[in-house]
Sequence to fold (152 residues):
Amino acid sequence: MKSLARRRDKAELLLRLKNVGPGSQAHWGRMSAHQMICHLCDAFRIVTGDKSVSSATGPMRQTIIKWIALYGPVAWPPGIPTVPEVDQELGGTAPANFAEDVAQLEALIENVAALAGTEIQRAHPIFGMMSETAWLRWGYLHVDHHLRQFGA
Fold:
């Protein structure tokens, strides 16, 4: 299974990220490419502890949905709602300079990947507490989902 814990998988995402530009068109959803970059940055800031978010979880989301999302055999579908703090139209970080925001995302991906082998003590807003392995799997899947959104 692909994960940010694997160098090859992380390198694949970083290479695909270079195929997204400020004018890239989404295949689904309402975010611009720049908003998507900022959304991913905000999401990784949850993992690093630099962004607090509200909880939108429950027993079903912490068990069955989490397992399907992280380990199921299908790609994440379009239209998955997020919490307001990482929604760029609500409380997420506003896009500023595209190149700088992409560089920030690359750094955050590297920082989160470097957490491999540590004990991450953070709750995901939807899936609840997750192991380091689950966070690194989620990180890969989340970036992959949004890169697919923009055809990258």
About this structure: The chain has a mean pLDDT of 92. The two ends are 20 Å apart (CA to CA).
